[in-house]
Amino acid sequence: MPQFDLPLEELRRYRPELPEPEDFDAFWQKTLLEARQYDLDTRFEAVDSPLEGVRVFDVTYAGFGGHPVKGWLVLPAGAREPLPAVVEYIGYGGGRGLPHMHLLWATAGYAHFVMDTRGQGSGGWAQGDTPDPVGSGPAHPGYMTRGIEDPHAYYYRRLYVDAVRAVEAVRAHPLVNASRVAALGVSQGGGLALAVGGLVPDLAAIAPDVPFLCDFPRAATLTDRQPYKEIGLYLKARRGGQERVFRTLSYFDCVHFAARGRAPALFSAALEDQTCPPSTVFAAFNAYAGSERSMEVYPFNDHEGGGPYQQGVQLRWLKGYLKG
After folding, report:
1. CB-based burial of residue 1 (10 Å sphere; 0-12 exposed, 13-18 middle, 19+ buried)?
2. Where is this region: Disordered (predicted)?
3. Do 47 and 99 contact (CB within 8 A), yes or no?
């Protein structure tokens, strides 16, 4: 698939005028205040694993509404002193999977926390173990339109809270240096890292890789790939609901969270990416408020982006912020 979006020089200048709710900050302050009324109740249970180079903990903590959220904590086997930590969020449809799928960051000397994704993890590539006990009104199959008529009921309100609480949970472990925690992820995971970067003021760094959940109005009308296509299919059946739907989405657009992010940030975009179009990624990058930000561009890649090459860039880049 050839490049289909704006030319790179225009992408570097792309700054859409996205309507931001007047109560955006108040909405999220109240949401997090309500979430913190529940004790975090973090439990780390050692896993009997054949992996000799790491120690694995099955983690449970209280996310949105006090609902139990699962995760893995993977530590270097010989760790005795608090380590910098990497919190990873998973792409759309996936769950935390199995511990041996998550060895990279621990072998690089970090505590690695992998958050499970409520209600997801049945897509065939990474199993999940966290249910979403909250129902919703009529929705298109998938997660993008669950509760989309009301920002308080929207699925991603619950998931963003889970993601913030994941940072709080990993900081509770005695072998984690709470002052040196980074957030990262690919696609949906990258969007969650951006949201957390805007909601948690003291992260050491974030690394959103081909992030999803950015510039909803453009994404929903530019690409016909899932999962953004779910929005269009929902509105196809519910004519006249566009204003209400996009108002809800405006509370969750990671361009707005980027405008509040301060931690050093490493983005990536792929210019043939039809799942998360590059203009939507650059919308978040160009809005990012932190003074230290950089972008890796992969001109001939689709949504796989840089893949292992981007991981190599992240390994070198994060070392300066977490181990420096």
Report:
1. exposed
2. 121-142
3. yes
Strands in 68-76's sheet, in edge-to-edge order, are 43-46, 54-62, 68-76, 111-115, 83-89, 176-186, 205-209, 265-270, 293-298
Encoded tokens for 64: 């949105």
Indicate the DSSP class of residue 124: S
Ordered DSSP codes for 174-204: TTEEEEEEEEEEETHHHHHHHHHHHH-TT-S
- Please identify every residue annotated as catalytic: 187, 273, 303
Dihedral, CA atoms, 30, 198, 227, 210, nearest 10 degrees? -170
Domains of the chain (ranges; CATH) run 21-322 (3.40.50.1820)
Tokens in use for 51? 């992996």
- Per residue in 28-46, pLDDT (tens digit) is 999 999 999 999 999 999 9
Q: Note whether 54 and 85 are within 8 A (CB).
A: no
pTM assigned to the model: 0.97
CA nearest to 53, candidates 115, 126, 104: 104
Sign of CA dihedral 161, 246, 198, 191: positive
Three-class secondary structure assignment of 52-114 = CCEEEEEEEEECHHHCEEEEEEEEECCCCCCEEEEEEECCCCCCCCCHHHCCHHHHCCCEEEE
Is the preceding omega at residue 227 within 30 degrees of 0, hence cis? Answer: yes
Contact 117, 127 (CB under 8 A): no
- Tokens describing residue 59: 């983690």
The two tokens of residue 313 are 């860039």
Q: What are the pLDDT digits (tens) for 218-275?
A: 999 999 999 999 999 999 999 999 999 999 999 999 999 999 999 999 999 999 999 9
What are the tokens at 219? 């994404």
